Amino acid sequence: MQVEVDQSVRIKDSQDTVMAFSNDERRAIILPAKVKRSVELYLRNRYRKPRNVELRIFTAGLFLLLKQHLTTQLEITIDKEFPGAENEASIKGMLLNYIRKTFPNFHGDQIGFASIGKKSPAHKLAYAVHRGKEQANYTATDEDLLAML
Question: 0.90 cut: is pTM over it?
Answer without folding.
Answer: yes
